[in-house]
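Title: Comparing notes on inverse folding

I've been comparing how different people in this forum approach sequence design from structure. To keep things fair, I'm posting one structure and asking everyone to reply with a full sequence. Here's the target:
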């Protein structure tokens, strides 16, 4: 029953966000913009989205090295199927399906693989903090917003410092953080300290600063290639938005929007994120919705088609995927 309620809430959230996205949209203007899209930019969006997924697989391989040396094809296959599941199933079920597939194929224990997925998210958060800082400092926003940009940039620098400290001296760094958090209520400090311990354990498995550095490089590659797809979408619709700055800001804002646990494919959240991001540049809601449809469809198709290809080549059944997805959505929603 609880699982059904969580599922209903996630689908309801997507429906609400989609209603917000389409409210006030001129369908005539939207369809006209899509018909006028420059087709030459569309295949690169599809291809670069696949490349971004490949960089995710490479980063995962770095995090998995202390556990096992996994072939790139196995990493790419599990990653592709997992992200296809994210597009087709609610509550990011693919985040559990992905390590489950790899554990099943390579004979690995599931729990450590789940820890690597959690560490991936932290790397993603760090890169998005950097992007958000750059976007805030360069966007045509009120002067007070610039302070937020410096805050985000400072947070990114602090994150890297803590990352290096945890990797080089985990026990001392955790003890220091515990001392800093001690004045806070136990309900606040406890979960943070536990998270830091888990994170430190995961980083300890990386063994070397070079491995951490390589994970950071791959994380940058993941998000920069995604930023290119958002920039190409701007060019395809000839929107009055700087391609580089716009691509970075759209990537960041949409990533924040789709972090809300919702229905399959981040429908609704993705559209609202695009409308908010383009609204900063003065782009109207109808054009912004056109942009969201174009970029979303291409990213969606790249993930689903690639995942379907690997699904058909792997010895896995839909029944097994459904069973794991049921567990995954329950676990994911319990975090939210």
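Reply #1:
Here's my take.
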């Amino acid at each position: 029953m609880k699982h059904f309620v969580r599922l209903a809430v996630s689908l309801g959230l997507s429906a609400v966000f989609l209603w917000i996205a389409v409210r006030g949209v001129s369908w005539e203007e939207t369809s006209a913009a899509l018909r006028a899209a420059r087709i030459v930019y569309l295949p690169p969006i599809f291809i670069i989205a696949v490349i971004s997924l490949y960089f995710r697989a490479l980063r995962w391989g770095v995090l998995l090295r202390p556990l096992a040396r996994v072939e790139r094809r196995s990493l790419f296959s599990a990653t592709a199927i997992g992200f296809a599941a994210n597009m087709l199933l609610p509550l990011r079920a693919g985040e559990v399906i992905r390590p489950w597939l790899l554990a099943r194929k390579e004979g690995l224990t599931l729990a450590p693989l789940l820890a690597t997925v959690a560490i991936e998210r932290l790397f993603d958060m760090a890169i998005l903090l950097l992007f958000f800082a750059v976007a805030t400092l360069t966007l045509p926003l009120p002067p007070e917003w610039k302070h937020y940009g410096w805050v985000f940039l400072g947070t990114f620098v602090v994150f890297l410092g803590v990352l290096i400290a945890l990797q080089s001296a985990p026990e001392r760094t955790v003890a220091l953080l515990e001392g800093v958090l001690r004045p806070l209520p136990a309900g606040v400090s406890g979960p943070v300290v536990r998270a830091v311990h888990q994170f430190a354990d995961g980083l300890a498995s990386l063994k070397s600063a070079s491995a951490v550095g390589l994970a950071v490089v791959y994380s940058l590659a993941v998000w920069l290639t995604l930023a290119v797809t958002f920039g190409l979408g701007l060019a395809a619709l000839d929107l009055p938005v700087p391609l580089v700055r716009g691509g970075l800001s759209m990537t960041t804002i949409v990533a924040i929007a789709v972090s809300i646990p919702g229905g399959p494919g981040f429908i609704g959240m993705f559209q609202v994120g695009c409308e908010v991001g383009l609204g900063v540049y003065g782009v109207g809601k109808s054009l912004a919705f056109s942009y969201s449809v174009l970029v979303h469809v291409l990213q969606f198709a790249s993930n689903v088609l690639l995942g379907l290809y690997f699904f058909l080549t792997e010895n896995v059944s839909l029944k097994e995927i459904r069973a794991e997805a049921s567990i995954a959505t329950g676990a994911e929603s319990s975090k939210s």
